[in-house]
Amino acid sequence: MGREPLAGRRARAIVAAMDAERISIAIEGADPVSGLWMAPAGVTSCLALAHGAGAGMTHRSMAAIADGLAERGVATLRYQFPYMEKGGKRVDPPPVAHAAVRAAADGARRRAGSLPLFAGGRSFGGRMTSQAQAISPLEGVRGLVFFAFPLHTAGKPGVERAAHLADVRIPMLFLQGTHDALAEIDLLRPVVAAQGGRATLKLVEAADHSFHVAAKTGRKDADVLAEFLDAAVAWMAAH
Fold it and tell me: What's the pLDDT score for residue 29?
């Protein structure tokens, strides 16, 4: 049987988005935060999905990832970091962010039941997830998915932020654009290679940190995200 037509998958995604369940996640040492649980029909796996530094779980970029994954049969638990829940602009200290990652992963695991469980996020959220995993494995998590891993700050290339990846012992998927100002590809490639078979790098030419591509490329941002999501779902199915 062929793949369901795109219009049908989009319709299912809209329904799934409307049916996203708002939940509360208790965090050790911090106030509870909000989460959005979305489980489409025919779900095959689950991803605990953290947001980036500048926008929370309801931002259109996060909604697009969650909706796209729902189209492809993946459940998601989006969640806020404590600073974002309070409307703050300064990110949480790593121990607080790590506690949020751990609490969200536990919540996703309980809801996912026997489904394969993965964790990750956009930019800052992905890095906090990998740091938490490096310190102490997230229970039940089979692999980490990074949507634009922030290897360094813009204009200040370096690899110091990747040092903890050596302590991550589960598979990792890096979804990156070649024009990402927070992850110069010539630096990221050897970082991923240094992790051996544990790490996979999926590149899309000309995409930036937000997965945006210029019109002159002949592609649309939605095409780029779809390519990344297809790769993520295939990778999760293989692990």
Answer: 86
